[in-house]
Amino acid sequence: MLKRTAAAIVVAAASALPVLAQDAMMKCDEASMMKMQSDMDAMTDPAMKEKKEMASKEMMMAKDSMTANKMDDCKMHMQNAMKSMGKM
């Protein structure tokens, strides 16, 4: 019984770490925007054109949200941009 409980705790902690790390690294600030933009600029493969366009749209929405001080929306759009680029 104790082994099962310990195993369950380890599994729960391991699955929570990526989520916590993702929140810690996802900031809605100029430096993060610049990093994302440079990552998008590095996408030169023509096969990734659609992904790059989607990420660019999400980044535009993130910039608009940051300007409007809607940080939660900004983070959401930045995460969507990362997903579009295949980084998540």
In short:
The protein is mainly alpha-helical.
* Topology, number of strands: 0
Radius of gyration: 17 Å
3D shape: globular
Query: Could you describe the largest sheet, including whether it forms a barrel?
Result: none
Helix and strand element order: HHHH
Low-pLDDT residue intervals, each spanning 5 or more residues: 16-24
Instruction: Work out the helix count.
Output: 4
What is the first-to-last residue Cα distance?
36 Å
Structural class of the secondary structure composition? Answer: mainly alpha
Overall mean pLDDT stands at 79
Percent helix, as a range, is over 70%
In percent terms, what proportion of residues is strand?
under 5%
Descriptive keywords:
88 residues, mainly alpha
Task: Explain the overall architecture.
80% of the residues lie in helices and 0% in strands. The protein is an all-alpha fold and 88 residues long. Helix 2 (30-41) packs antiparallel against helix 3 and helix 3 (49-67) packs antiparallel against helix 4 (71-85).
Explain the layout of strands and helices.
Layout: H1 2-25, H2 30-41, H3 49-67, H4 71-85
Helix pairs in contact: 2-3, 3-4
